[in-house]
Amino acid sequence: xxxxxTPLALPSSPFIRAAGISLDTLPIAWCEFDQHHWHAELHQAxxxxxxxxxxxxxxxxxxxxxxxxxxxxQNFAHFGLPHFVLCNAPDRSPLWPAGIQxxxxxxxxxxxxxxxxxxxxxxxxxxxxMAEETADETAGMLMSPAEKQRLLARPMPFAQAATLLFxxxxxxxxxxxxxxxxxxxxxxxxVLELDVQQGRATLRLCxxxxxxxxxxxxxxxxxxxxxxxxxxxxxxPLPTK
Length: 241
Fold this sequence. Notes:
By secondary structure, this protein is of the alpha+beta class. The protein folds into two domains: 5-117, CATH 3.90.470; 125-237, CATH 3.90.470.20. It contains five helices and twelve strands. Strands 1-2-3-7-6 form a five-stranded antiparallel sheet, covered by helices on one side. It has a five-stranded antiparallel sheet with strand order 8-12-11-10-9. It has a two-stranded antiparallel sheet with strand order 4-5. A hairpin with a 5-residue loop joins β4 (87-88) and β5 (94-95). α3 (132-142) crosses α5. The longest helix is centred in the last third of the chain and has 23 residues, at 158-180. The chain is globular. It starts with a strand and ends with a strand. EntB, EntD, EntE, and EntF form a multienzyme complex called enterobactin synthase. Pathway: Siderophore biosynthesis; enterobactin biosynthesis.
């Protein structure tokens, strides 16, 4: 998944197929899972209960929940919290331990998460590359004309570039939600720079949300293009009180 990483110990169940942690300054933990090997007994065996709201959900949704919670638990063992069970607030946002900033994402058969004790806003996202037709149909909703021109100038298929832009803006939303608790649409953040070789991007907000998160704030992100997947990570200093 990443050029430099260390593996995570796998459970005996074939449900989790592979897992690891990147060796970056702010590590990203990841796992690949197979929903066909999901079964209800795993929730009890791993002490990761399935919420009542998901009891009647389709297998895909239950598998995503179990894999992401397993990944969180494995990653938080490195923070001295080996038995942490992630729950959600009424607005469905994750309830992380005090003093830890984190973010979680999953798509199809992959889950990723990033966590730190540093005073940072953190947003991580993973996406499956969209089809060319989908990229063309949604371009007007996802990007400004200037952004589209920047993407077309990059040495990558437009569908991959559009997915990357979508993922970067998802990471912005996830990083800022705990501070703002305000919904954002895709045109309220703009990608200014995209360095495909270095896997780095710079974004800015297109409106002032508060006295700290304004159009003057530049947001820095990393990204990884792994086969048909796109992973993005955005971090930004937390507002000083």
